[in-house]
Amino acid sequence: MGFLTTQTEKLYTFENIEQQTKLTGPKDQLLALIEEGLEVNLLVRGNQVAIQGDSDKASTALAVLDALTQLIKKQISVGPADVASAVTMANRGTLEYFADLYSESIIRDNKGRAVRVKNYGQRQYVQSIRKSDLTFGIGPAGTGKTFLAVAMAISALKKGDVERIVITRPAVEAGESLGFLPGDLKEKVDPYMRPIYDAMNTLVGADHVSRLIDRGVLEIAPLAYMRGRTLDDSFIIVDEAQNTTNAQMKMILTRLGFGSKMVVNGDPSQIDLPHGVRSGLVAAQRILRDVDRINFINFDSADVVRHPMVGQIVMAYDQAETRLAELKKAQKEANK
């Protein structure tokens, strides 16, 4: 027996043409994101938007439009990522916290734009980094783990909270070791560190990144180069941590020195280690879950802040993997 849904139409009125232009976006692009995320129809009629659909969803869409309007009134630019975040938070029942995300910025990027968290999950992540010595950010690509960690590191450096930034990740190659690759260390390492450089370049500019490296204030290196060191007064970011072995994870965690913070990011669904080698990130979740001053922040597909389709792709793969695991379990039981 199915449940009957009540179809309705609600109206949202723009206060002026500027507000309307900023809220609808080019070719009503921003409204289309609300339609897709909330399963409603939005029709622009003069200075109003007609919201058509299930009564509860129409009410939610109305609340999303109002939340976005409040940002515009504060002279905050609204883009696709902001709309996607508002929709996600509305679906999760956390839209009341949406305005809080924009109450402060972490830093300003190379073009002077404020860098802010985009959803409730990111807010928890940033708050954890501020309060804890060690934060694990665990979840799929596109949730902003690396970018926000780099932004927090730059902010800490500018405030004088740390003296340097150390960013590392395991270099998992297809049957090659770094020693056999052509070029000097930088040329060997750069392909594996490209996402880090992209984030740094966006936030402070390529020229400034080069100066920081030359001064020894910024170090971007493979995980193997961290062995035997103690990193005091540093902001340490371990990226792609799902590809660390258990021994590598223990090694990098014990590099943490006085006056330092560490952020460890990874996606357990994208482990590239050889078959039979257990991920150090997966083991750390079990081993360290009850240790004080260590926080685990878990993201899921709803926290993805890229194109909405990315979140749907992640969710589809998660569902497929769950079905496959259930099938294997059933086959195993049948073979007993």
Automatic annotation (TrEMBL):
Tell me where on the tree of life, at the top rank, the source sits: Bacteria
- Report the GO terms under cellular component: cytosol
What keywords is this UniProt entry annotated with?
ATP-binding, Cytoplasm, Nucleotide-binding
Question: Which InterPro entries does the entry mention?
Answer: P-loop_NTPase, PhoH, PhoH2-like
* Subcellular location per the Swiss-Prot or TrEMBL entry: Cytoplasm
- Predominantly, its location class is cytoplasm
Cross-referenced Gene3D superfamilies: P-loop containing nucleotide triphosphate hydrolases
Q: Which family does it belong to?
A: Belongs to the PhoH family.
Protein's recorded name? PhoH-like protein
Organism this protein belongs to? Fructobacillus ficulneus
